[in-house]
Each structure stands twice: as structure tokens, then as C-alpha cells.
Design goal:
The protein is of the alpha/beta class. The chain is built from 15 helices and eight strands.
């Protein structure tokens, strides 16, 4: 029995050790910023695309926000895709100042299809743009967003993810803990990988992609996590995703547990779907090209698998404590002291992040509930794995519009506003 379970549990433990070290290194590397001189001189033109399905409650505030960005108005256009709408999304967007394209397709449903459809229409226009910028209808955008993306494009970066902030972190404990999770990922994953010269991944909104990149490699990303799919598709070709820490977008976080459950389940389904298709390709191309950047992408796309392995190990550890049935090598690979240091530092770093970004007072209370929220990822991930081939789109309904003036523009102190 021991020998049989060792064949399963020893590889799982080795994976846990490698991932724990990897996450620890990233967490530490996300605590600092590269010093750089920024060039805010506007040089690039942007086609801003917002895909909206029944978003009349929020799309107006976003479009109004986008019309007054701190960037020459003649250097960017705002396109809203009214995708299979049955409300006044198109009317509201037009009145707010957007160019609206109505899409009706009951077969190809989802944001990925809508984005690809709009990309094709932009390419057919007489005017040519240097880059696409994609937002969700419930977003608000920092006035400096396009200047920051312009700076990164001028540095030679082609695919860029902006900082995903929250516009409603104080609404409920769900929106608060959801916001904390995003802040942690921003610093301990995206910023860390950028500091190390590694590729991160697109986050669905606040994305900037050079138009010639999509034209060269094609879009055709229509799974439930089209952002991850496109990131991995590009990485196979050696095109990395960069990070713009000061290009801030304010995203609306779910208010209720079931909203967050459904949204996270959709992400997990899409993540596993992408994993099945891209892990073998990343491994093959990474080895063939001898490219560590591509191989590192495996860590990105296997995160939900790691959560499942960790859960299995945790359950088996409790069983093993009372009835030894496998060999525990965790403390043979790394001493207990090292595990304690990793645990303490990974607990302290999130606190440092929250202090750095000066979160609202209520968020500190939500931080006490944060572990509960994180543990709910286990059943969500498990269900995502079981339903990984289910591509039915789950839409998050937004009912309350918020203007930019109502949102605290956090992290303003980190931004250089010289033009």
C-alpha cells in the first residue's frame, strides 16, 4: 500500500516543493519597482474596444470616462460592441460618445467572439491604429492610462496588461476579499514576473495589444478565458506579455458570494480548458527552442492543477498523521525551518502590499475574512475541472453605475504625471 501511494504522493510532494519555492521567489520580487524615466509624449493611436452585453447600467459611465482621458482626443476612438443586447446598451453608449457596433449572433456567444468580430471591423476601416485597448463595460479608467500604455509601446513592448484595481472594494466582504486577491496578483505575480523579465498573462480587461500582433498571429480565442488563451498562444511564438503597473483600470468586483462563485467557476473552466491544449505545446516548444520564457508559461497555466494537488496532499497529510500510508518527503527536501520562513514571509508580504496601496479602512477587516474566501477556491476549482469542456458563457449582471469621481484613485502617488 505504501509503495503504491508513494508512486502518487512523492511526485505530488515534489511539485508542491517546486511551486512553493517559485511562488515565494515571485512574492519577494514583487516588492520592488524598476526605476525608469517615462516618456509620455503621445505617439501611438488607439482603438478602444468595449464588448457589452446588456450593460446599460454601467457602460455610459465608462464611455464618459474614456472621452476625457489625458491623451489627445484625436489619437484614440471608442468602439462599443452591443453584443446580443436586449436592453438600451447601444443607445446609452451612443449618447455617452462611443461609436457603437451592434452584433447579433446567438450561436457564437461570448466575449472572445465579440472581440474577434470587432477586430475584423477595425481592420476594414480607412483609419489605421497602432494598438487595441480592451475594457469591460463595468470598468473605469485612470486618466493617465493611455499615456502609460504609450510609454510601454515606445519601449518596444507589444502585449501589455494594466493594473487591475477595484472600484468597489468597500461594498461587501465579497467585493473586498475579491479586490484583495487581485491586488496580491498584481504585485506578487504580474509585477514580480515583469521585474524578472518573464512573461505574465492578459487579465481580460485593461489590455493593450499592438494591432499588427493580432493581424500576424490571428485572434480565434473563444474559450471562457480568451485572455489566457491568447497569452499562451503568443508565448508559444516567443511573444511575451508585459506589465504596466501604472496603467490603472478600476474593475467592479462581485457583490455576492454566488456572483463570485459563478465568475470564478467560469475562469477555472476556461483555465483547465486552456491547460489541456497549451501545456503540451508550451513544453514541446520550450524544449525545442531551449526557451525558459516559454517553459515558465507552464507555471502560469498550471496554477489550478497545483491547487488540486495541494488539496489532495493536505487531506492525505491528515490521514497519514494517524495512519501512515505513504512516505512524507516534504521536510526531507526542505527543512522545517525553511518552510516556517516561507510561511511567515508569505504572510507578511500581503500586509506590505495593502500598506503600499493605502486601501480603505474597511478592507483591513475584510482581510481577516480573506483566508475563508481563498479556501472557497478549492470547490470552485474542482467543479471547474469537472466542467472544463462546458463552454456556456456565464454573464455577470451589473446594476449600479459608478462615475470616476466616486472612485478613490489609489496608487496616485506612484504615478509620474509629467508629460
Amino acid at each position: 500500500m505504501n509503495h503504491f501511494l508513494d508512486l502518487i504522493m512523492i511526485p505530488i510532494q515534489v511539485i508542491i516543493v517546486y511551486y512553493s519555492i517559485y511562488y515565494f521567489v515571485l512574492a519577494v520580487c514583487g516588492m520592488w519597482r524598476r526605476k525608469e524615466k517615462k516618456n509620455y509624449t503621445p505617439k501611438n493611436t488607439f482603438a478602444i474596444i468595449v464588448c457589452a452585453h446588456n450593460e446599460e447600467a454601467v457602460v455610459g459611465q465608462l464611455v464618459e470616462n474614456l472621452t476625457i482621458l489625458d491623451y489627445p482626443r484625436d489619437m484614440y476612438d471608442i468602439f462599443v460592441v452591443a453584443d446580443n443586447c436586449t436592453d438600451n446598451t447601444a443607445k446609452v453608449a451612443i449618447e455617452a460618445g462611443a461609436k457603437v457596433y451592434v452584433r447579433e449572433n446567438k450561436t457564437e456567444v461570448g466575449k472572445g467572439y465579440a472581440m474577434g468580430w470587432m477586430f475584423d471591423r477595425v481592420y476594414e476601416m480607412d483609419r489605421k491604429y497602432d494598438a487595441f485597448v480592451i475594457f469591460d463595460a463595468d470598468n473605469l479608467v485612470h486618466p493617465q492610462f493611455l499615456r502609460e500604455m504609450n510609454h510601454h509601446l515606445e519601449k518596444g513592448e507589444s502585449v501589455i496588461q494594466g493594473y487591475l484595481n477595484a472600484k468597489n472594494p468597500s461594498d461587501t466582504w465579497i467585493s473586498g476579499t475579491f479586490a484583495i486577491a487581485f491586488w496580491m496578483v498584481n504585485h506578487m505575480w504580474h509585477l514580480a514576473k515583469y521585474n524578472l523579465g518573464l512573461s505574465t498573462a492578459l487579465g481580460g480587461t485593461g489590455m493593450c495589444i499592438r494591432t499588427d500582433i493580432i493581424k500576424k498571429y490571428g485572434w480565434d480565442c473563444n474559450c471562457l478565458t480568451e485572455d489566457m488563451e491568447f497569452s499562451m498562444k503568443l508565448l508559444i511564438h516567443g511573444v511575451k506579455t508585459s506589465w504596466a503597473h501604472d496603467a490603472i483600470v478600476y474593475d467592479e468586483k462581485p457583490l455576492t458570494f454566488m456572483q463570485s462563485w459563478n465568475q470564478r467557476k467560469r475562469w477555472a473552466q476556461g483555465h483547465f480548458d486552456c491547460g489541456e491544449r497549451y501545456i503540451p505545446k508550451l513544453f514541446t516548444e520550450g524544449i525545442k527552442q531551449g526557451n525558459l520564457l516559454i517553459l515558465d508559461g507552464i507555471f502560469q497555466i498550471t496554477q489550478p492543477y497545483f491547487l488540486l494537488f495541494s488539496t489532495v496532499y493536505l487531506v492525505m497529510t491528515y490521514i497519514n498523521a494517524f495512519y501512515p500510508i505513504y512516505t512524507n518527503i516534504i521536510y526531507q527536501v526542505l527543512p522545517v525551518t525553511v518552510w516556517k520562513v516561507i510561511g511567515v514571509i508569505q504572510y507578511i508580504i500581503p500586509l506590505i502590499v495593502l500598506l503600499q496601496i493605502k486601501v480603505p479602512p474597511k478592507v483591513w477587516f475584510y482581510y481577516l475574512l480573506y483566508p475563508i474566501f481563498m479556501y472557497t477556491w478549492i470547490p470552485v476549482t474542482f467543479l471547474g475541472f469537472l466542467h472544463r469542456h462546458d463552454t456556456a458563457w456565464s454573464h455577470t449582471k451589473h446594476t449600479r453605475g459608478v462615475a470616476l469621481g466616486e472612485v478613490k484613485l489609489t496608487r496616485m502617488g506612484n504615478m509620474n504625471t509629467k508629460k
